[in-house]
Amino acid sequence: MSDAARAGAAAGSGARQPPVAIVIPTFNRASTLGRAVDSALSQSYPAVRVIVVDDGSTDATAALLARYRSDPRVRVIVRPVNGGVTAAKNTGLDALPEDCVYFGILDSDDVLLPGALAALAAAFEGHPAPLSQVFGWCADAETGEPTGVAPRRAGPIRYRDALCGRFEGEFWQLVRRESLGAWRFDEGAAGNEAQVWWPLLKAAPGLLIDRVVRRYDLSGTDRVNRPAFTERGARRKLRGYAALMDRVGADMRAACPARYAGMMLECGKWAALAGERRAAWRAVRAALRAHPSLRVLKVAALLPLPACLLRPAYRRLYRDSPSRPPGASASPPARRPSRRRTSWRWPRR
Q1: Per-residue pLDDT tens over the stretch 186-230
Q2: Residues 19-64: pLDDT tens digits?
């Protein structure tokens, strides 16, 4: 039976559905927030709550959210001062209802597709073993192209798949609330939600379903994963990579030394751009010890340059590269999968 069929059967049976909460952090996105909230509220899944965290918006966000005042499914939390998207996400996680069984985090410029929650929840309920997360595919809102790469079209997603780069890019998932525990995002980091999602995979595997569940908007200029080649932006990127590697680095080095080396090079690059010369050298030495390569030596050759020269150089490279994505994944980038390796990029029917 397909995921959609299981979801329909469960809904038709009259059984009480496990409550699902959707956290939507937002800052000055009044033009897109309404469609994100509406896409969650219009789901066929009957037990849905929406938590909107307004992170100190100064545009028309408050007026827009007033439309939902009478809807008991919607809770609005207003942070008086903008603290960044990771802080807003943590606020939403701390506010999850006590009876919430599963939750997801939806960007305020993205849209959940019809039937998404029913399919993801049905996969949780129909699986014989405990899962930490159930993932669905995402489509670029402009091109319709997939935003992630997986080792298979549908099936189990294991910790090692994430560590070794077989499962990477942008997917959308429901998470078992019980699995989350005390895990939270580093509020000083830019992006890198993998610092929470990957350790959850270590505790219990995930599952990927053969369904597109989210339309992912990459067009915004305020996306947290867009590289910011300033000292402050570099420090936030460095902190995101450091938070991830603190949590999974030892396991990654043991499982996939080349992947570990690539991640440490990212740490080294952002440390250099932030002017943290010693941290940059430590990261590059760790990469060299784990997996010596020409790439490591190339990055090492750049480290003597002052940050004030490196930042504009990287800014130009990013701007001029024809292959750069309009936005970056919530998970850290990794080298593209080998052509010899079977990787599903789209759930074609």
Answers
A1: 999 988 899 999 999 999 999 999 999 999 988 765 655 566 788
A2: 999 999 999 999 999 999 999 999 999 999 999 999 999 999 999 9
Shared domain for 191 and 304, answered yes or no, is no
Query: In this structure, are 80 and 146 located in the same domain?
Result: yes
52, 74 contact by CB (below 8 A): yes
* Nearest partner of 124 among 132, 113, 114, 116, judged by Cα: 132
Token pair of 139 as six digits: 């489509």
Give CA–CA dist 127/13, Å, rounded: 18
- Residue reference for tokens 């990787």: 343
Q: The domain that contains 163 carries what CATH number? A: 3.90.550.10
Domain boundary residue among 216, 248, 277? 216
Is there a contact between 217 and 141 (Cβ–Cβ < 8 Å)? yes
The reported pTM is 0.85
Query: Domain range for residue 265?
Result: 231-320
Cβ(208)–Cβ(171) below 8 Å: yes
Residues 46 and 182 in one domain: yes
Contact 148, 138 (CB under 8 A): yes
| Residue pLDDT, tens place only, 131-185 | 999 999 999 999 999 999 999 999 999 999 999 999 999 999 999 999 999 999 9
Burial (Cβ within 10 Å: 0-12, 13-18, ≥19) of residue 58: exposed
Angle at 78 between CA 73 and CA 82, to 5 degrees: 140
Tokens 């509020």 map to which residue? 187
